[in-house]
Amino acid sequence: MSETLDLTLKVWRQPGPDASGRYVEYKLTEISTHMSFLEMLDVLNEQLNEKGEEMIAFDHDCREGICGACSLMINGQAHGPDSGTTTCQLHMRRFKNGDTIVIEPWRARAFPVVRDLVVDRGAFDRIVQEGGFISANTGSAPDANSVPIPAPVQETAMDAAACIGCGACVAACKNASAMLFVSAKVSHLSTLPQGKPERDSRVQGMVAQMDLEGFGNCTNTEECQAACPAEISVSNIARLNREFLRAQLCSKE
Amino acid sequence: MADTANTVFNSRVPDGPMAEKWDRCKQEMKLVNPANKRKKKIIVVGTGLAGASAAASLAELGYQVESFCFQDSPRRAHSIAAQGGINAAKNYPNDGDSVWRLFYDTVKGGDYRSREANVHRLAQVSNNIIDQCTAQGVPFARDYGGLLSNRSFGGAQVSRTFYARGQTGQQLLLGAYSALMRQVGTGRVTLFPRREMLDLVVVDGVARGIIVRNLITGEFEKYSADCVLLCTGGYGNAFYLSTNAKGSNVTAAWRCHKRGAYFANPCYTQIHPTCIPVSGDYQSKLTLMSESLRNDGRVWVPGAQGDQRRGNQIPDTERDYYLERRYPAFGNLVPRDVASRASKERCDAGYGVGSTGQAVFLDFRDAIARDGKHTIEAKYGNLFHMYKKITGEDPYQVPMRIYPAVHYTMGGLWVDYHLQSSIPGLFVLGEANFSDHGANRLGASALMQGLADGYFVAPYTTSNFLGSQNLPEVSTDDEAFTEAMANAQDRNSKILGVQGTRSSDSIHRELGHILWEYCGMSRERQGLESAMGKISDLREEFWSSIKVLGQGEQLNQNLEHAGRLADFLEFGELMVRDALVREESCGGHFREEHQTKDNEALRDDKNFSHVSAWEFTGVGNEPVEHREQLEFIEVPLATRSYK
Amino acid sequence: MVTKLAEKQQSSPSTGGKSATKWIMTLLSSSIGQKFVMGITGLLLCGFLVVHLAGNLLVYVGAEAYNGYADKLHSMMLLPVAETGLFLLLFAHIALAIKLTRDNQQARHISYQEPQSKIEEKPSLFSQTPMGNTSGWMFISGSIILAFLVIHMIDMKLHWNPGVDYSIETPEGVVEAKPYSIMVQVLGSFTAPFYIVGTIVLGFHLSHGFSSAFQSLGLNHPKYTPLIKKLAILFAFVIAAGFASLPIWGFFIH
Ligand SMILES: Cc1cc2nc3c(=O)[nH]c(=O)nc-3n(C[C@H](O)[C@H](O)[C@H](O)COP(=O)(O)OP(=O)(O)OC[C@H]3O[C@@H](n4cnc5c(N)ncnc54)[C@H](O)[C@@H]3O)c2cc1C
Ligand code: HEM
Ligand code: SF4
Ligand code: FES
Questions:
Q1: Fewer beta carbons below 10 Å: N end or C end of chain C?
Q2: Which pTM does this prediction carry?
Q3: Residue C254 scores a pLDDT above 80
C-alpha cells in the first residue's frame, strides 16, 4: 500500500538573525507517503546529524494543527498546497515522486528570521497586549448564563476565535499585512456582548500597535484567507475596518 | 530526614465538614497588604491553562509576575491542543448534577487514589471557572436560546461538559492568555518566552528562583523571586509517542525533584482509548480523537479473528460491540482506562483491525443514520477533517480506526492542599502536580483542574504563603544561584561534549519502546524489573554516545531535545520503580498479577490506599518512598464498576 | 503616537477628549484610515467617471447635443471648484497610493523564490490576466492611468496636441474650436491609441478597486458582498468599454 518518494529539497539555511542565508539543496529517498511533512524533515535532520551537519531549525510543537507554531513557506505557499491545513498536518501523499520542494521561512520585516526556518512572531503578542482581551478580573464574573448570546453571534465569534496565531496570513500576503490576524481577534471579542464595553479602545490599541510593528497595508488581495489554516474569513477585515472607523469617528476619546 | 518527612506530609487539609473546608481555609489565610504586593515578585513557569491563569490572577492582585515558557509565545502552551471540553457542576441541563456528584464521579473515576478534600474543592470552584471564562469571551457552544449547552464525557451519567467546538482547550487558553497579555500591557507581568527552566534555586530551604536557558541566544539567565509556581505540564513524552506536544517535558519538574521536591505516583499514566493508530517507524507523535466522539460513535471489532474486510463491509451480525457488551450501564462511555484496556484485550486476542492489527473501529454509521450527516458534522466536523488529513480516509464513509495512546499523566510533583510542594515556596499547578485525579483522570477534568489551580486556588494560597513568611531579600549573585547556574551549564556542555554516534531521537524512541512495553497499559513484575535495567543501560549509552552538533550559544533544538531526554532517562526509572512497588491495579496502573476473573482491575485498598511520594537521593540511587495515607470518608471505598 | 494601555488605564476616562484635530490625525496616519481615504477617493473618482462617461457618450447623439452639454458645463460657475476638488481627490489618491505601496514593499523586504497563490476559485476572466484579481497590479495600472491622464490633460486642457487644431479661422477671426471638433480630432490623432490602452487599464484597475473600496470602508455582508464583486466587474467593463469605444469610433469616422 505504502508508496515512497524520492525528493529534492531546497531549504533556506541561516545560522542566526544577523547572518546572511542561502538555499541549500538536499536529496531524500524513500520517503513514505504516509509521513507528515514535518516527519519528512525529521528524517532529513536525522540524516544530516549522521553526516555531521547541523540540523535544520524549524518551529513546531503540537503537530496537530492547533498551536500555530509550525510555519513554513512550501513551494511559495504558506503551509503548503492544501487549504485549511497547517504544515504539520500536511502529508507527503500530497507530493509526487521526483518533486523539488522549496522551503522558506515566513518573510516579513515584522517577523525577523531567528535561524533557518524559525522566525520571531513576537509582534503578534505585542498586538494582543494592546487590547486583545476583555478586562474581567478573576472572580468578578457573573453567572455564565446571565447574558444569553444568540447562537449565530457566538458562532461568528467562534469562527474568528479559531485563529491559531501562526502568521501564515502575513506570510502569504504580498504586503506582509497582519490584518487577518488582527481582524480575527477584534471580531471575536467585539461581536460578543462581553466585549462591547472595550470595543473602541481595543481596536484602536491593536491597530496602532500593528502599524508600529511594520506590517504592510491590506490591499484586499485575499491571499491571507486562502492560506489561513483556520479558514478565517476576510469578512473579518471588513469588520475590523468598520470597528476602527466607528471608534475613530464616534468614540468620545 | 525522618522528621522533615513528617512535616512535609502534613497535607494541610483543613478540618471540618468537607463542604466547608475550602471556605474555612480561605478565612484562615494570611493576606498581603496592597502596598506590599507590589514589592513581591512571583515567578510562574509555564503559560498553559494553569500558568497563564495563575500569572494573570496574581498580577491582577498587584504582584509583580515573571512568566516563562519555552514556546515563542505563551499562547502556544500545550493546553491549546485540548479538544473535548471542560467539566463543571452547573447542572444547566437539569439532569441531577451537583458539586457533590462531580466530586463523587471524580473520586470514583480516579479509582479512589486521590485526596478527597482537593477533589471537593475542584468541584466547588468548577462553576466559577465557567463564569470566568465566559466573561473573558470564551465562545462556549450555545443552544438556540442563547444559553450554554453541554455534552457528555466518559465516567459520568450527566451532561456537564462545556465545549467550544472541538477546540475547547484552545479557547480556554486564549482566554487565559488574553488575561495574561492584558497584565503584560499594564507592566505587572514580564514575559519571558523561549526560555527553558533548567534548575530551581533553593535558598535556606525556600524556593527563591530559577535558572533558565534563553533558547535564542543560548545564554543562561538567573531570576530571583519570593516564590515560584511551576505549571509545566505533564511528562507523557517519556514514552516518545504520545498525544502531547513535541516540546512537553519533565525537565522542570524533574530538576525541582532533584532539589528536594517529592515526586508522587509517577506510574499513573493515562492511556487514552481513542487515538489515531501508529502508521510507521517514522511516526513522531500520536493524534487524539476527542473522547466526545464516544457520545455518538460505537466501538467495535469484527467477531472473527483476522477479519481483513473494510469496516463498512462487515455486517452487524459479525460485529462485536465489546464495550456495550461488557459494560451495559455506561456502554461506549466507560472511563478511559477501562476503554483502553478493553481495546488492548481485543487486539491482543487477535481481533484487531488495520494493517498492524493494533486498532479497533469507532463507527458513526448509526449516528449519521439517526441524526443526519449535518448534525454529526456540526458536532465533530473538525475532528473528522483532522482524521481524514492524517489517514487519508473519510470517516463519514468508513469507520475510524483508533487505538489507545499515552495522553496524560496523573502523577506529578507532590503538593499539599495549598498546592505547595515539599519545598516551601515552590507551588505546583496543573498537570505538573499529582493532586486531583488519583489513578485515572476523567475526561474534561484536566482543563478544569488547571484553571481551578490557576484562577481560584493558587492566588489565595501563594498570598497566604507570602503573607505568613518574612523572607529575606535574595540577589541572583547569591551562591545558590551561581551554583545552580554552573550546574545547568555544565550539564549542557557535557551533552555537547560527548560527540558520539546516536541521535537523541533514536535514544528517545528506544526509551519509549521500553516504557510502552513494560510500563504501558499493563505491567507485571518481571517486565518492570527488566525495564529498570534497560533504562539505566540506555541512560549510560546516552551519556557515552549522544551526538548533538552545533553550539550552545545559539538556537539549538537538538540540544534542547537531548537535555529533555536526559531527564526522561532519569525519570523513567522512577516511573518503573513506582509501578513495581504498587502491587495492585488501579486506574491507569494495571498490574497483570492483580486482576479479577473477568480481567477487571483489582485494587488493594488495605495496603495501597496511599500516595507514593518519592524523594531523590542521587541519579541511579534508590529513592526514598514516603507515603501519604488517603482517607475516604465522603465517598466510601467501593469497587469501581461501570457495568 | 500610541497611547500605551498602561497610561490609558491610569488616566481616568472622564478627563477630556482628544483635541478636535488630533483624532483626525490619528485616523489619517493609521493604515486603516489611509485605506479608508483611498477607498473614498477611489469611489468618488468612480462617480466622476460615470458622469464623465455619460457626457462623453453624447457624441454619439450628435455634435449639437455634445456641444450643448459641453458649453453648459463650461459656463457653470462652480466648475473650477469641482475641478479643483477632482484634482485634490486624484492627488490624495495618488499620494496615498505611493505611500502605501512603498510601505508594503518595505514590509516584505525579502521576497520569496516563487510565491504561488492559494486562492482556488478565480472569480472572473479578468483574473486570468496579470491585472486581474491580483491587487499587485494596482500601482502599475494606476501609474499607466496617470500617464494616460497626463496625455489626456495635454490634449484637452493644455491644448498642446500638435495634431489638433484648437482654433479655427472664421471670417470673424480666430475662434476656439467647438468641443465636438476637438474631441473628434483628438480621437483621430496619434494619441488615440493611448486612450484605448488607458481606459482598458482603467477597467482592470476598477475590477479590483471598486469592490475593494467597499471592503476598505468596512462594507461587507454575506448577502451583498458577492453581488458587489460581480457588480465591480460589470462596472469596470462598462466604464472601460464605454470610454474605449470613443477612440475606436474616432478611428472609423476618420
Ligand atoms: C491532545 C490532548 C487533548 C486533551 N483534551 C482534553 C480535554 O478535552 N479536556 C481536558 O480536561 N483535558 C484535556 N487534555 C489534558 C489537558 O489539556 C492538559 O492536562 C492541560 O492542558 C495541562 O495544562 P497545564 O497548564 O498544566 O500545562 P501545559 O498546557 O502543558 O503547559 C505547560 C507550560 O509549561 C511550559 N514549560 C514546560 N516545560 C518548561 C520548561 N522546562 N521551562 C520553561 N517552560 C516550560 C510550556 O512552555 C507551557 O507553557 C488534553 C490533552 C491532550 C494532549
Ligand atoms: C480615474 C482614476 C482612478 C479611479 C477611478 C481609481 C479608483 C480606485 C479605487 C476605487 C480603488 C480602491 C480603493 C480601495 O481599495 O479601498 C483604487 C485603488 C488604488 N488606486 Fe486608483 N483610481 C484611479 C486612479 C489611480 C491613479 C492615477 C493611481 C496612481 C498611481 C492609482 C493607484 C491606486 C492604487 C495603488 C490603489 C490600490 C490601493 C489598495 O488596494 O490598497 N489609482 N483606485
Ligand atoms: S488569521 Fe489564519 S493565517 Fe493568520 S495567524 Fe490566524 S490562523 Fe494563522
Ligand atoms: S505544530 Fe502546532 S500547528 Fe503545526
A1: N
A2: 0.95
A3: no
